[in-house]
Amino acid sequence: MNQNQNIFMNLRVIHFAMITGPSALLAISYISLTERELIEIAILTQLGLGIAILAGIAAIFAPIYFAKQLKINSDKEVKYQTVKIVQWAIIEAAALMNALSFYFGGNLESAGIAILMILLMASRFPSQVEMDKIFTDKPSYMK
Fold it and tell me: pTM (2 decimals)?
């Protein structure tokens, strides 16, 4: 297995693990929903929504920003791995925030937002095409 394949295999494992955390919290929250007393914290739901919106925007622009910052350093496989992990961490934070809001308050809106964040993270699957697109020196009109 060459280094490029190895990087993508590592990224797939990390990607799966980062999706599993918020998903497991949502599942546990849903299963235990009827067996515990809920604490309604409206600000937590609003904060979760705000963080989710910011995370969605950051997930789109983080690769572009970090690619520019990392152009000087090591090879593109290592830079791509760094960019993807940062991107997933941003989305995972929003998913966990909303999953916790659902856990404490049982608010279905928070669960829905957490599910959307998990789906967004799942859609950010690592690919060779994306890596080449992010770390190319040519403008898109010259390709």
Answer: 0.82
* 25, part of any domain: yes
- The structural domain count of the chain equals 1
Contact 123, 15 (CB under 8 A): no
What pLDDT digit, counting tens, does each position of 79-128 carry? 888 888 989 999 999 999 999 988 888 888 999 999 999 999 999 888 88
* Residue 38 placed within a domain: yes
Contacts of 121 (CB under 8 A, 6+ apart): 15, 18, 19, 88, 91, 92, 95
Say if 142 falls within a structural domain.
no
Q: Are 67 and 79 in contact (CB under 8 A)?
A: yes
What is the distance between the alpha carbons of residues 129 and 142, in angstroms, rounded to a whole number?
16
Is there a contact between 59 and 83 (Cβ–Cβ < 8 Å)? Answer: no
- Residue 97: which residues within 8 A CB-CB, separation 6 or more? 47, 48, 51, 52
Q: Where in the sequence is the domain holding 19, given as residue range(s)?
A: 3-136
Q: Does residue 143 sit within a domain?
A: no
